[in-house]
From TrEMBL:
It comes from Sesamum angolense. Keywords: Endonuclease, Hydrolase, Nuclease, Nucleotidyltransferase, Protease, RNA-directed DNA polymerase, Transferase. Residues 168-347 form the Reverse transcriptase domain. This is Transposon Ty3-G Gag-Pol polyprotein. The lineage of its organism: Eukaryota, Viridiplantae, Streptophyta, Embryophyta, Tracheophyta. One of its GO terms (molecular function) is endonuclease activity. The keyword Hydrolase applies. GO terms for biological process: proteolysis. Pfam families: RVT_1. It comes from the Eukaryota. InterPro entries: DNA/RNA_pol_sf, Rev_trsase/Diguanyl_cyclase, RNA-dir_DNA_polymerase, RT_dom.
Length: 417
């Protein structure tokens, strides 16, 4: 029930799982008993009482029946902050919880409570102009590309109008008279809501690629040896926190049933956007990279060998984010964890292990039947350093791709580990 509040008693099963944040369900009959998993660093089998108001803000979609669900944090207005997921509820619906009001809960670590303005519920407005704005350089002589808008269902048109109004109100887009124009479409998110996507594929084909390197994930994870405490910060709509250079704004233009618009902040879907944001974050946190911070695009992981060190490390990063006016999404952040999921892995003082959800997805991956599917599978894998036999399997798959073979018996068993 939307807008409901409750005092909740969480009854925990003994099953060990990796999850973050909170998924909430009210018992239909009593409205007060919740079964789930609470995460305080490592999962512990115990009863935890949460006192205070929580608000159910979204109910949509059916979740698959397995343990690794995406969940979000809850900040009760009073009492403890905890994380849990209800397996019973997961088989029926998904509900998100967000805090009532803007203040961080008193049970949060003191260092986090010092920086409430780093965790706004929405971006406060247009970002400051940073050292470098985002530029789109196209190959010499390339003519502007304008594509007829895609057809949309009535429900999609209604959502399109709503999201355009929101973007205009925030100042992230403006009306355009640009000769450029990409079409738009919607992609359904896991929670059932719709994400507005600009189809920049034609623009990307004629864009000069930014060669700024994204870090190797295995190199990043190597930095975590000896760490025992972790915090993860997820920036809120990170790309929208970077301006587009004025001369490049017309190239971001997109066409819709309701008008022609262009972005003044960096939109999603542009080929050089990840490299540009990676460059920004590396410059922002340069003095501390590989000391107690690793960054992958808009994900920041702070790691420390002790809780005392971690307090100072976390404060340092939050101070920089506040100074640079970079904002995070609290419901996707995790603090003071002994075990944390990051970039498809679970890291702890014991080392780095593959995320169980990712392993499950690999084991259930259907047999590739053509070169495109083989390459897609290879690009998705990130576990070569911790999966025995991976390199042997990788070489076999590479041979399939090189010979442009479209089918082979037994491909699903090549990477059996």
């Amino acid at each position: 029930m939307l807008g409901s509040s409750a005092n909740c008693v969480l009854s925990l099963p003994s099953t060990r799982t990796y999850c973050k944040g909170l998924s909430y369900v009210r018992d239909n009959a009593r409205g007060s008993q919740i079964s789930g998993l609470v995460v305080w660093g490592k999962t512990r089998n115990e009863l935890v009482r949460v006192e205070g108001e929580v608000e159910v803000v979204e109910v949509a979609g059916i979740l698959p029946r397995h343990q690794q669900h995406k969940v979000v944090n809850s900040i009760p207005s009073k009492g403890s902050t905890c994380s849990f997921i209800s397996h019973d509820f997961a088989s029926r619906v998904h509900a998100s919880i967000e805090s009532l009001g803007h203040d961080l809960c008193v049970s949060m670590p003191a260092v986090v409570r010092e920086f409430p303005n780093v965790f706004p519920e929405e971006l406060p407005g247009l970002p400051p102009h940073r050292e470098v704005d985002f530029e789109i350089d196209t190959i010499p002589g390339a003519a502007p590309i304008s594509i007829t808008p895609y057809r949309m269902a009535l429900l999609e048109l209604k959502e399109l109008k709503k999201q355009l109004e929101e973007l205009l109100d925030k100042g992230f887009i403006r009306p355009s008279i640009s000769p450029w124009g990409a079409p738009v479409l919607f992609v359904k998110k896991k929670d059932g809501s719709m994400r507005l996507c600009i189809d920049y594929r034609q623009l990307n084909r004629i864009t000069i690629k930014n060669k700024y390197p994204l870090p190797r994930i295995d190199d990043l994870l190597d930095q975590l040896k000896g760490a025992t405490v972790f915090s993860k910060i997820d920036l809120r709509s990170g790309y929208w926190q970077l301006w587009v250079e004025e001369g490049s704004i017309p190239k971001t233009a997109f066409r819709t049933r309701y008008g022609h618009y262009e972005f003044v902040v960096m939109p999603f879907g542009l080929t050089n956007a990840p490299a540009a944001f990676m460059s920004l974050m590396n410059k922002t946190l340069q003095p501390f990279l590989d000391q107690f911070v690793i960054v992958f695009i808009d994900d920041i992981l702070i790691y420390s060998s002790s809780r005392e060190e971690h307090e100072q490390h976390l404060r340092t990063v939050l101070q920089i984010l506040r100074e640079k006016q970079l904002y995070a999404k609290f419901i996707k952040c995790e603090f003071w964890m002994e075990e944390i999921a990051f970039l498809g892995h679970v890291v702890s003082k014991e080392g780095v292990q593959p995320d169980p959800a990712k392993v499950k997805a690999i084991m259930e991956w259907e047999s590739p039947k053509n070169v495109s599917e083989v390459r897609s599978f290879l690009d998705w894998l990130l576990l070569q350093k911790i999966c025995e036999g991976f390199l042997r399997g990788r070489k076999t798959f590479d041979k399939f791709a090189e010979k442009r073979m479209h089918h082979s018996t037994g491909m699903t068993n090549v990477l059996r580990v």
